[in-house]
Design goal:
By secondary structure, the chain is α/β, with parallel strands linked by helices. Helix content is 27%, strand content 32%. A hairpin with a 5-residue loop joins strand 5 (123-131) and strand 6. The protein is elongated and about 50 Å long.
Length: 142
């Protein structure tokens, strides 16, 4: 079934550590992430103007959430043994309930952030693609 989709991306800089990683990503490091949001109307219909949602509303509800919650912060898994140490030395540490891989970040945005931020709009966040580099990305969709 054909459907209209709205896509918008937003760039943030964010640090993380992938606990249990076998390579260099086990160390503290960061990325200039590009986060792509894909939204659809829950009822499948365009609004009276002919849109799924105005791009500025995607910016306000999703992009600005990224700015406030993750941009220039360091994400650490609540079960990471370095969590307590990092919290003691840096106020920009954000504890998350998952190992902060690109895959888990995308899933969290779709499953947790999207529903909260878009509540009452009739819009659903159906996919997030997260680029860690220009060559590598992970996505999650429903």
């Amino acid at each position: 079934m054909a459907t209209h989709k709205v896509h918008r991306y937003h760039d943030i800089s964010c640090g993380h550590r992938v606990h249990g990683h076998e390579g260099k990503c086990r160390h503290l490091h960061g990325h200039n992430y590009r986060v792509h949001f894909t939204c659809v109307a829950e009822d499948g219909h365009l609004d009276n103007v002919g849109r799924v949602i105005d791009f500025s509303e995607v910016k306000e509800k999703l992009c600005m959430w990224l700015e406030k919650e993750w941009d220039h912060f360091f994400l650490i898994w609540e079960q990471d043994p370095m969590r307590s140490y990092l919290l003691d030395i840096d106020s920009t540490v954000v504890v998350v309930p998952f190992n902060p891989t690109a895959e888990n970040l995308a899933e969290y945005l779709v499953e947790v952030v999207g529903p909260k931020q878009l509540a009452g709009t009739g819009i659903k966040l159906v996919e997030v693609k997260i680029e860690e580099t220009m060559k590598c990305f992970a996505s999650y969709g429903v």
